[in-house]
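for the writeup, i need someone to sanity check this before i put it in the appendix. the sequnce is what the collaborator sent (i think, or maybe the updated version? ugh). structure was predicted straight from it, no edits. if anything looks off just tell me and ill rerun, i have time this weekend
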Amino acid sequence: MTLQAVILDVDGTLVLSNDAHAQAWVEAFATHGYEVPYEKVRPLIGMGGDKVIPKMVPGLNDKEGDGKAISEKRKELIINRFAPTLHPANGSRELILRMQKEGLRLIIATSATTEELSFLLKAAQVDDLLDEATTSSDAEESKPAPDIVEAALSKLKIEPSQAVMIADTPYDIESANKAGVGTIALRCGGCDDSQLKGAIAIYDNPADILAHYSDSPLF
């Protein structure tokens, strides 16, 4: 079936924010008296915060008590402190423009909140190009569950075989695969090829896809 749409992850894919997210978690947990090592939380970036919290401190969740307060603190840190310091992934804007020129429909699928997404897209310098999105509020379960990708397909009113996802973590790949969507993976989020093995193709960053566009799954 002809490719009609591309589902886009944001963190680590369009903007180099994964390290910042990990540091925000460390500081948010510390604010409430929990010592969470950076090295422990960094490999979890890409899955939803609702899943990160109980993995770091069993018994906590993002709906109540300390877990909820930690989740709110992390969001505050990302928006107010880290977002202004972030940089786009190499070639993000140019790749999006090329995909739009080729007539592909683009939609974001992220575990971020709508408020966070606004700041992240500005940091990626693509906020004027992308207006369709599914976020944490559109899904029962966050990545690696398929809900957010399925919500994107539903918004676009297309079949899984008519879309691919561009993303950067194994949690994105698992989410997309469960929804029946192939993933073009990027190394710029910090994962190596062994972690991205479920993808249909792997590139360094958006610029690398662009440089090999006619040989990529997008063509």
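The CA atoms of residues 83 and 119 lie 6 Å apart. The longest helix spans residues 65-82.
thx in advance!!
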